[in-house]
Amino acid sequence: MNDADRCIEALDKCARACENCASACIAEGALPEMEKCIRLDLDCASLCRFTSAALARDTEFMRDFCDLCARICDACADECGRHPPAHCQACSDACRACAEACRAL
Questions:
Q1: What is the pLDDT along the chain (105 residues), one digit of tens a residue?
Q2: In sequence order, what are the residues at sequence separation of 6 or more whose Cβ sits closer than 8 angstroms to the Cβ of residue 39?
Q3: Are 12 and 52 within 8 A, CB to CB?
Q4: Which letter, b or e, does each residue of 15-40 get, where b requires 16 or more Cβ atoms within 10 Å of its Cβ?
Q5: Full set of structural domains in the chain with CATH
Q6: Rounded to the nearest 5°, which phi and psi values hold at 6?
Q7: How far is C-alpha 22 from the geometric centre of its chain's CA atoms?
């Protein structure tokens, strides 16, 4: 597996973790306190999915997408890491791994 394939795998895993976290936060009903977390989860998931597709196409803008994705993954990891639920911690871990994979490219 090459670096691009590893990054695509990390991007897809991160998107799933972010979507799961956002859904779980909404289901828990703590919307005012978790609004920032939910918004970052959704932004991160969307960008991870887009970046994964762009890498699969071998776009010339790969580094640009990966740089932005790493920044958003870092922000999401920091926010989710502040909250105790397991889904937030799993999301934080996936976001950190994704940011590292994006920077490795």
A1: 788 999 999 999 999 999 999 999 999 887 788 999 999 999 999 999 999 999 999 999 999 999 999 999 999 999 999 999 999 999 999 999 999 999 998
A2: none
A3: yes
A4: bbbbbbbbebbeeeeeeeebeebbeb
A5: 3-104 (1.20.1270.360)
A6: -65, -40
A7: 11
Output the pTM of the full model.
Answer: 0.95
Which tokens go with 84? 């105790």
The torsion angles phi and psi of 30, rounded to 5 degrees, stand at -95, 50
Please state, in angstroms and as integers, the Cα–Cα distance from residue 22 to each residue in 8, 11, 45, following that order.
21, 16, 10
Structure tokens at 78: 């920091």
Q: Tell me the C-alpha distance between 87 and 27, whole Å.
A: 12
| CA–CA distances in Å: residue 57 to residues 16, 23, 94, 97 | 21, 29, 23, 22
Report the alpha-carbon distance of residue 65 to residue 58 in Å, rounded.
11
Q: Which residue has the tokens 């105790």?
A: 84
